[in-house]
Amino acid sequence: MLLLRFRGAAKIVAAVVFFALFLPGVTRGGGGQPLRAGTEVFAVAPDLVLEVSYRTPDVNLSAQRRSPGEPFALIFWEKKQPQPASCLAGEGFARILRQLTSLKLRRTLEAGEVQEYFQRNPLSSWAELEIRDVSAAEPFRARLHPGERSAPEALVHFHGVTYLVDFQPQVFNLIAGGCRTLGVERSPKVR
C-alpha cells in the first residue's frame, strides 16, 4: 500500500516538474522555443462541442446540445432587453463555432505589451469564453477581446498567457446580433 502511494506521489511530482520545466518555454522570454505562428493555441472539432458560453457585461450567449449531431439551442440575453431570446442555431452560429474552436496563433505578446494592453482594456472587461466538448476534460476557459487594429485578429488570454490569434472581426458582430444573426430563420406558420 505504501509503495502504491509513493508511486502515485512520484507521478504527481513528475507532472509538476514537467510543467515547471516545459510551460515557461512555450512563451517568449521563457528560455525555450516560442510557439510558431499558425499553431493552434486551442482547437477542438466543432462536431464534438456540446456547450459554448460567451459573456460580456452587455451580452450573454449560451449554446447547448445533448449530443453531437443535434442542433444547438441558443439563449441570448442582452442588457437592454427585458427578456432573453431563444432559437435554434443556424449558419451564423456555425461560423462563430468554427472560429472559436480553432484559435491560430499570430504571436505571443511580450509581458510589457500585455501590461500596456491591460491598462487600456482591463482583463475584467474582456468576454468570458467557455467551451465544453464530449471529452471528460475540463472545459476550455479563456478571456477574449477584439484586436485594436483593423486586422482580422483578437486577443485570447488563458493559463496566464495572452496570445494574438487570427480572428474574423465579423464574429463579434454575429454574436452581438443574437438570434437574428445566429439562429435559423423561422418559416411562416401555415394556416
Describe the protein.
This protein has two domains: 1-34; 40-182, no CATH class. Strand 3 and strand 4 form a beta hairpin. It has a ten-stranded antiparallel sheet. With 191 residues, the protein is α+β, with helices and mostly antiparallel strands. The protein has helices at residues 2-22, 91-100, 111-120, 170-176, 179-182; strands at 40-43, 49-55, 59-64, 73-78, 85-88, 102-108, 127-133, 140-146, 153-158, 161-166. It has five helices and ten strands. Residues 1-33 have low confidence and may be disordered. The radius of gyration is 20 Å and the shape is globular.
The residue ranges in which pLDDT falls below 50 over 5 or more consecutive positions are 1-33
Distance between the termini: 73 Å
Q: How many domains would you count in the coordinates?
A: 2
Q: What's the main sheet like?
A: 10 strands, antiparallel
The averaged pLDDT comes out at: 81
DSSP strand content: 25-35%
How many individual β-strands? 10
Cα-atom Rg, whole angstroms?
20 Å
Structure annotation, total helices: 5
- Oligomer, anyone? single chain
Question: How much helicity do the residues have?
Answer: 25-40%
* Content-based structural category: alpha+beta
Q: Which of globular, elongated, flat, extended, rod-shaped describes the shape?
A: globular
Provide the spatial order of strands within the biggest beta sheet.
1-6-10-9-8-7-2-3-4-5
**N-to-C SSE series?**
HEEEEEHEHEEEEHH
